[in-house]
Design brief:
Length: 311
């Protein structure tokens, strides 16, 4: 049995290592949101003359204030997790938040807020969106975002994180390697196949069209663009996907406020379900861990079900 050699490490170095790994428990975007929540709470406490760090009563009053200002219950509920996280990060005891949790449960029952879901579009509408695009670099890039997003079911953040090395062309289509995602924070990764399509809805042709102007340089697969020129090497964000979808929706007369970055994923799941794909097969592509979550992405046509007609 091999003996592990002793190594002297200063206590400060060990503490820094602990802090680093504890921070890595949450993604960068989650930590950013938690920090924003904590800073907003701090500002409210200062403006209202409440103590900070706050007690459970102060947090409950803050939640009531947010609800009175029109914040969604789901948005306020997220702050329970962010505040618990920050108390632990600061080495402070977590206050009793049972009354705050009861407040949110009561608000959820009384207000009965329906979650706002991004709309899904059909293949016919996607075809119209692509036809409305021109041949400027931003148009070619947006078509790639729309068609590849629809065909792959990728999250906007996953599409934005793709590099050139993550995509491989094959006879049947494209193989995409997703190295990390919302439900895979440890970076185990997964690979999905995207089949060829027909005409302007073919993700292989759309991507190849984009690569003709992008080139084969390493780095981010999809670059930022202004209306007149490329921004080589600049990685897009999920907001770029969001704006591309809304522009495309508005171009064919749809209400852009009903659509966004999540519409591509919802459209993929809806189209797959309509064609009889098994939920497990859909989950293997989307990376979902729960069937109920996948079902929440389906935007069915209520008149597609003929049960009521038989009554």
């Amino acid at each position: 049995m091999r003996r592990i050699q002793d190594r002297y490490i200063e206590l400060g170095e060990l503490k820094n290592l602990v802090a680093r790994y504890v921070r890595a428990e949450r993604s960068v975007s989650t930590r950013r949101n938690y920090e924003a929540d904590w800073n907003m709470l701090r500002a409210w406490c200062q403006s209202s003359g409440r103590e900070f760090p706050p007690c459970g009563e102060t947090i409950t009053l803050y939640f009531a204030y947010l609800l009175s200002c029109g914040h969604k219950v789901s948005s306020v509920n997220r702050r329970l997790s962010s505040f618990r996280y920050y108390f632990r990060q600061q080495g402070l005891p977590v206050p009793d938040l049972s009354v705050a949790a009861a407040l949110l449960a009561g608000a959820r029952r009384e207000l009965r807020q329906r979650p706002k879901k991004a709309g899904a579009f059909s293949t016919a509408q996607l075809s119209q969106m692509c036809a409305a695009l021109g041949r400027r670099p931003i148009d070619i890039r947006d078509r790639t975002i729309l068609v590849l997003g629809f065909a792959s079911g990728l999250r906007a953040s996953e599409m934005a994180a793709l590099d050139m090395d993550d995509v491989a062309f094959h006879d049947a289509g494209i193989v995409i390697t997703i190295r990390r995602s919302k439900t895979d924070q440890e970076g185990k990764g997964r690979m999905i196949g995207v089949f060829r399509g027909e005409g302007e809805l073919c993700p292989v042709e759309a991507l190849a069209d984009w690569l003709e102007i992008r080139g084969a340089h390493p780095g981010p697969l999809i670059w930022g663009c202004s209306r007149s020129r490329l921004r080589p090497g600049r990685r897009i964000s999920w907001e770029v996907v969001h704006k591309a979808v809304r522009r495309a929706a508005a171009a064919i007369g749809l209400d852009p406020l009903r659509y966004g970055a999540h519409s591509l994923r919802a459209s993929f799941v809806t189209a797959a379900a309509a064609r009889g794909a098994h939920p497990i097969a859909i989950m293997q592509v989307t990376g979902h861990k729960n069937v109920a979550t996948v079902a929440g992405y389906i935007r069915p046509d209520v008149f597609a079900f003929k049960t009521a007609r038989a009554l």
